[in-house]
Amino acid sequence: MPLNVWVLVAAQALAMCTAPFIVFIGSIQGRMLAPAPEYATLPVGLVVVGTVLAIKPATWLMERIGRKRVMLLGAIMGIVAGLMGGLASWTGLFSLLCLAAVVGGTGLAVVHQYRFAAMESVAPGMAGSAAARVLLGGLVAAWLGPEVAGLGSGAAEQYPFLVSWIALAAVQGAALLILAIGYRAGAERVQESRPGGGRPLREIMANPLIWAAMSAAAIGYAVMSFIMTATPLSMTEMVGHDLDDAKRVIQLHIMAMYLPSLISGWLTRVVGIPLMMAAGLLAYLGCIALAASGVSFHHYLSALLLLGVGWNFLFVGGTTLLPRGYRDAERFRVQGLNDIMVFGSQATAALSAGAILSWLGWGGLVMVAVPFLILHGLLMTLWLLRERTPEAAVNGRE
How far apart are CA 56 and CA 210, in angstroms? Predict the structure, then answer.
């Protein structure tokens, strides 16, 4: 792997901390500051809202001024989010906490583009492995994010989580330095092209392969976010588990999301993307079965571990499949649309998790995910049937 890929791995390990950080304390601090319990998960959902709102501007800027400058801007937004979250802890303003979550989400929109930058820095045959390597940075973020969040969570803290947010700003500053010093835009295999080139988007979207790729990432992310967002609240507020137990489950879940990246890029080449996606769907179904069968610590842990593995297989599979459906001149438009679908679905799932948990309980919440998994299975089937036709084979060679 070229140096650019390893720089992105290191930057991802730090910049991605915003996500597990807010997932862990967002609903807990939200419960402290929100005017009503129903709004407790709002900060977690608003992280994804910020991501969705920033995807189009981020890809638009990358197409015009290059990836590196926008990556640096994304790290700066992460620093601003940490400082705003600290101010929210100081003042006790729920609205400011929500705003910090939105700003943090804008930074994450840029972080999610790291995988495409890595894929464009290697030969086409290594694209899946490059994307998986970058996701490995999430292993560090999975552990570091909640640990940073726990720095200011003690009962004796006068301003709960103030130190946590300031520490998050410092972590984002370190990511900024790594990108500024290490990333080389000139090392990208696919150079920046003239904006607006390629086929009309309607023609691109007529390909079932695009829908299979996007649904793998979008449904995979939505189901993962839906269950993960509700987990800390379900464990601590509804079942009575300790905060440390909830932290451990979230940490191990996020590690399970990224640890398979050690082999998932290899699996895309050896067993193929369809089988890898099918394994991801089976892992999700196992997660739902375990979560619905009990509320002990081990039920939560086992379910969330399977949830993480399933997410990795679906997300890496979809990310690797997507470039097969567009040309170089179309990449920013298709990548932007893909991430809008992915994180728009995630935002809807995260924002609805608190209300559905209150209405249906934990067992009912996890069953809501089943129809969406069936939908992705149908879209995969449509793509595979289309791939078997002679016309699709000719188009693939073109």
Answer: 18
Which of 100, 114, 102, 15 has its CA nearest to residue 54? 102
Q: ∠ CA(324), CA(325), CA(326), 5° rounding?
A: 100
In whole angstroms, what is the distance from residue 243 CA to residue 208 CA?
44
CA distance 157 to 159: 5
Distance between CA atoms of residues 218 and 22, nearest Å? 20
Q: What is the pTM of this model?
A: 0.75
Q: Report the alpha-carbon distance of residue 343 to residue 313 in Å, rounded.
A: 17
Burial 134-167, CB ≥16 within 10 A → b, else e: bbbbbbbbbbbbbbbbbbbbeeeeeebbbbbbbb
Alpha-carbon distance of 42 to 57, in angstroms, equals 23
Per residue in 340-376, pLDDT (tens digit) is: 888 888 778 877 888 898 889 899 999 999 999 999 9
b/e sequence 330-353, b meaning 16+ C-beta within 10 Å: bbbbbbbbbbbbbbbbbbbbbbbb
The domain spans of the chain are: 1-181, 199-389
- pLDDT, tens digit, for every residue of 120-154? 888 777 877 888 888 888 788 878 888 898 887 66
| CATH code of the domain made up of 1-181 | 1.20.1250.20
Does domain 199-389 fall into CATH 1.20.1250.20?
A: yes
